[in-house]
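Troubleshooting log. The previous structure file for this entry was overwritten by mistake, so regenerating from the original sequence record. Sequence copied from the archived sheet and checked twice against the printout by T.R.
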Amino acid sequence: MKLRLVLILTSIALFATSGNLFAEECEEKPCCPENKTMLKKGSSALLFKVTGNLTIDEWQGMGIYMKHHFSPKRALRTGFEIDARLSDYGTDSNSGSSYYQDASTNVIDFAFSTQYIRFLSDPSDINFYWVAGPKFGVSYDIDREKRVYRESDLNVNSIIIDKRETSSVYSGLFGGIGVEWFIKKKFSLIAEYECTGAYTWNSTTFTNERLVENNSEYYQSEGTYTSWSYQMYGARMGLALYF
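Regenerated output below.
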């Protein structure tokens, strides 16, 4: 897996070194064709993604992402993401049941990213580019499960409560390749293939509590660990609104 990530990031680096990042660009050449798009110095855009059911959402999670051009071929994309997932589930209980489960999962993620975008040719209706940059984030995850066992003959309830809390901090590199297609001068569609490699620090606290009649047992353990991972996002579809 690490080798695959290295190959992907190396390919992105080769794109970056294939030409001079500060070479003379189209808007500075007297003989270049007219630029009819918003890929020009000083332009900015809000970015949104299109989900599977063709609804419009934020570009990367719940957050704000913007792009600002320093020239027709060079831009900076920056923003933050917030992802909150709250869920409760369990097994319905009635007077005749011998087992009942109540569980919940709460997750909150926050990430910040700044990404450099380099277009591969002078502006046109269809423009290919690569993108790369650092990404930082934190997350907090709580899993709680309560199980109740009922002995119908003795009318005794045994209760077991498990709870796991995990705090994570990660940093890594984001990279991808994409294409931007201008439908109108200030409106474009985007398709991007992305991957992220990250180093993560995790701190976990696990507690287990058992209650049987008037007796109780309590157990708690803590631990920290680090990990290296990568994630392939696949193709992300979106749109850009320029101003």
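Strands lie at 44-50, 56-58, 62-69, 74-91, 99-119, 126-151, 156-184, 187-212, 215-242. Archived copy saved in two places this time.
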